[in-house]
Design a protein that fits this description.
Bound molecules: 1-deoxynojirimycin
Shape: globular
GO molecular function: alpha-amylase activity
Oligomer: single chain
Family: Belongs to the glycosyl hydrolase 13 family.
CATH superfamily of the largest domain: Glycosidases
Keywords: Glycoprotein, Hydrolase
Pfam family, one: Alpha-amylase
Number of helices: 13
Protein name: Glycoside hydrolase family 13 protein
Strand content: 5-15%
CATH architecture of the largest domain: Alpha-Beta Barrel
Number of strands: 20
Distance between the termini: 23 Å
CATH topology of the largest domain: TIM Barrel
Length: 564
């Protein structure tokens, strides 16, 4: 531990948590997640599209991000908002064409913004040509071997092959009718029944995904966010498994789950690493792997595997100084220990937006979402205040950070979505017991006075936008120093100016337990997660998550101080 930094020697050397060395862009990048269906809609059909993204990239350059990650826009029946891919190498007409993609990529690169696309290797859509062929083919055929088909249990195979439960609710198996009309085999789907899992022990599947990677790399993408990167390999024999009652559906808390984090999965990424190395420049793979600790997550980013992994243990940490200190320390040891950057994320399209999540009246497990009848309800003002403080902490941390569209506007979770407008498969597969993730996926507001708040020109929106969102529109925040948008711009500019992404971090231990205090490079960060005001040390306030007078840091507020 270090003591208060003095002006002459602001960077503590001892006990500093030092980022892994390396100059590749992905080690330090701030990456902005675009959820294409909800970002900008050029043709007014109520669903965002690629030309819409291209038209709004200037706003992201102004914000100051280094890269964008696009959730899936490939051909899909949209049963799981595009995470059910029917053709991996073409754009769904809902989102545009391959030419629109190329134009978007060119514009982004012209603005010095890298582009990462989503790759969904665990499962395809049931409309994928391979699955359709499998349905038409016999048990034991080459076509069936690309997926996980098994005979059922019971006298006539009428029971599923094991007891696994889908992440979205209900059994993880569906039974098919054989081409001759008789009840037949069962196929495995970790998610919806429209998302059959590939069999990754099959070399043909591996070869197909090399082809898909090269298809997008040839078009010039800078990397891939890899969906369910911990799920591809299932334990031999597919043994029964019953999760603990309070287990998180994506496996975050569990230790040994036969479909999450099986050791064989790492060979897949070693292979992909080599595919990326065939290309010039630095291309990156980022794992979406829900694992309980930074140490476990770091197994996905060993030097010959992926380059980044989402830090979900950090994302799921509450607004609690001690817990944050632990997860940040663990992350800054675990990732650099394998030569990888730590990553940081607070929101995405699967979790309750952090402006609501950080001030809920009761816990809500990841993926379940909240709605009008949930026990857990957000306390809006407190949530936004904590979210701004939490982001002020996050953007000071060494490594790479992910932002989710709309968080720079301080958007809360949309709670009052009418039941008949909800679309998440979780809502249907749990018989409306769990609301699911629609509340974080609502089209974002650009202009307060325009139809659909500037999302398009017709006013249509695939999920209804709350009336209060006019207040969050980008145009009303632009230029207002107190707005969340200007806070984000300020943080991103100062993060870059002070090279925080590559700076060592050292904790300052003379503060109360509910205060998070650290030195990173030349910046001192103090975040007050407790109720009592905290006296600030010397130093000019460079950024404050909330305006305040004097030198007492109010509750739920964070600052960056400088002695420059
Ligand atoms: C993780 C994605 O982020 C989520 O949105 C999707 O439903 C599942 N994987 C299944 O692909």
């Amino acid at each position: 531990m270090t003591s208060t930094p003095d002006a002459a020697s602001p960077v503590p050397a001892a006990d500093a948590l030092t980022p892994a060395p390396g100059s590749e862009w992905w080690r330090t990048a701030v990456i902005y997640q675009i959820y294409p269906r909800s970002f900008a809609d050029s043709d007014g059909d109520g669903l965002g599209d690629l030309p819409g993204i291209t038209s709004r990239l200037g706003a992201l350059a102004d914000l100051g991000v280094d890269a964008i990650w696009l959730s899936p826009f490939m051909v899909s029946p949209q049963k799981d908002a595009g995470y059910d891919v029917a053709d991996y190498c073409d754009v769904d007409p809902l989102f545009g064409t391959l030419a629109d993609f190329d134009a978007m990529l060119e514009r982004a690169h012209g603005l010095d913004i890298r582009v990462i696309v989503d790759l969904v290797p665990n499962h395809s859509s049931d409309q994928h040509v391979w699955f359709q062929e499998a349905l038409r083919s016999a048990p034991g055929s080459r076509e069936r071997a690309r997926y996980i088909f098994r005979d059922g249990r019971g006298e006539n195979g009428e029971l599923p092959p094991n007891n696994w439960e889908s992440v979205f609710g209900g059994p993880m198996w569906d039974r098919v009718t054989e081409p001759d009309g008789t009840p037949g085999q069962w196929y495995l789907h970790i998610f919806d029944s429209s998302q059959p899992d590939f069999d990754w022990t099959n070399p043909e599947v591996r070869e197909e995904f090399r082809r898909i990677l090269r298809f997008w790399l040839d078009r010039g993408v800078d990397g891939f966010r890899v969906d369910v990167a911990h799920g591809l390999i299932k334990k031999d024999g597919l043994p029964d498994y019953t999760p603990a009652d309070d287990a998180d559906s994506m496996g975050g808390e569990e230790q040994d789950v036969p479909y999450w984090g099986q050791p064989g999965v790492h060979d897949v990424y070693r292979d992909w690493h080599l595919v990326l190395e065939e290309y010039p420049g630095h291309r990156a793979l980022c794992a979406e792997a829900w694992l309980p600790t930074p140490d476990k997550t770091a197994l996905w980013v060993r030097p010959d595997e992926m380059h980044q992994a989402f830090n979900f243990p950090y994302a799921m940490t509450e607004w609690d100084a001690a817990a944050l200190r632990t997860v940040i320390t663990d992350s800054l040891r675990a990732f650099p220990a394998v030569g990888a950057p730590a990553t940081w994320v607070l929101s995405n399209h699967d979790v309750i937006r952090h402006a609501s999540r950080l001030a809920l009246t009761a816990p809500s497990p990841q993926g379940e979402g909240i709605g009008p009848d949930s026990v857990a309800q957000p306390i809006p003002e407190l949530g936004l205040r904590r979210a701004r403080a939490a982001t002020t902490v996050m953007l000071a941390l060494p490594g790479s950070a992910y932002l989710y569209q709309g968080e720079e506007l301080g958007l809360p979770e949309a709670i009052d979505i009418p039941d008949d407008a909800r679309q998440d498969p979780t809502w249907f597969r749990t018989n409306h017991e769990k609301y699911g993730r629609d509340g974080c996926r609502v089209p974002i507001p650009w202009e307060a006075g325009a139809p659909a708040y500037g999302f398009n020109q017709t006013g249509l929106a695939w999920l209804p936008q709350p009336a209060t969102w006019a207040d969050y529109a980008r145009d009303v925040q632009e230029g207002d120093a107190r707005s969340t948008l200007e806070l984000y711009k300020h943080l991103l500019a100062e993060r870059r100016a002070h090279e925080l992404a590559t700076a060592p971090l050292a904790w300052l231990d003379e503060y109360p337990d509910d205060v998070l205090a650290f030195q990173v490079g030349t910046i001192t960060v103090i975040a007050n997660a407790g109720p009592a005001p905290v006296e600030l040390p010397t130093g000019r306030i460079l950024v404050a998550s909330e305006p305040f007078e004097g030198r007492e840091l109010p509750a739920d507020t964070a600052v960056w101080l400088t002695t420059d």
